Amino acid sequence: MTTPVLELVDVHVQFHTREAGLFSRHRLHALTGIDLWINHGETVGVVGESGCGKSTLARVLVGLQAPTSGLVRLRGDDLSTMTAKTRRQAIGSTVGMIYQDPSTALNPRLSVSAILSDPLEVHHRGSRAQRSARVRELMSLVGLPSSLAEVFPGQLSGGQRQRVAIGRALALDPEIVIADEPTSALDVSVRAQILSLLLDLKERLGLAMVFISHDIQTVQRVADRVVTMYLGRIVEEAPCTAIPEGIRHPYTQALFSATPSILHPADPIELVGPMPSPVHPPSGCPFRTRCWRATDLCAESIPDAVADINSPQHNYRCYYPVEPRSLTG
Ligand SMILES: Nc1ncnc2c1ncn2[C@@H]1O[C@H](COP(=O)(O)OP(=O)(O)OP(=O)(O)O)[C@@H](O)[C@H]1O
Ligand code: SF4
Ligand SMILES: [Mg+2]
Questions:
Q1: pTM for the complete prediction?
Q2: What share of the chain in percent tops pLDDT 90?
């Protein structure tokens, strides 16, 4: 077995927080028991509703958020055993990050060329001339005309800004890119272009990628494997070839049923009630308060991850999984 580029082992992230109107502090369970690995060249899609922990997961993967407990391994090396400097160097040269909103992710006071050369300078890459050449190369890679080199982010369109952000993420020639909802803040008209650019770069550069989105249909198009998160936990992990027919977890089924072009448009599964508070997660299965298949057993303990008999790469946490192919009737 090859060593994954990135690996999370039993990662938990808890934040101390105050609930509105109350003075006591609470623990918010943003991530609970996350096991995840990403192999060289592989794209893993992450889906789930707002607040389920997707961005926290992204921040853990790029070293911006230290886990409360658990391990993060970069090419097999435990990040927590590295000095801060070694960790910054190791992450900086291996992992690139693309954020949701390019208008806030780019420094408005730096020109496009300064934004793209910044990571090269921070990591002492090349001479001045080599850095300039790399900036030109990056601009061409992400489809930005060289005439925009000295322009500031405020003068660019949303799509152009996201191209700059993608170029910056690729500046140090990373092995893996973490893209946290990279198209959701963009105009609908440019989303497809940015998605195509990412897919093209992934192929050309042989990148591994973690692609986060609440749109399961987009994720299925981009990823090799789809991870479904609910209330800070991974509840299902399935190869794209098993989706949608092979879905086993009721929550993933509900997410897919809301995408009309894949399922019968007249038959969406409506989730009743809000996602529970991550400050007071329910006992047992986190989905049980909204699950139409729940019984008393579901409140007792979180189901173990079970591998699907048809595909060992596919696992889910559910006592009463849906039958494969039941989606297509
Ligand atoms: N720094 C923080 N301090 C306190 N709570 C936080 C912090 N960051 C995130 N949270 C909480 O952790 C939970 C997970 O947040 P996160 O941003 O990871 O969700 P998400 O899935 O990315 O949501 P969205 O789809 O809206 O971007 C939420 O309840 C959020 O309010
Ligand atoms: S374990 Fe129970 S509550 Fe959780 S998804 Fe399965 S059936 Fe629903
Ligand atoms: Mg988010």
A1: 0.94
A2: 79
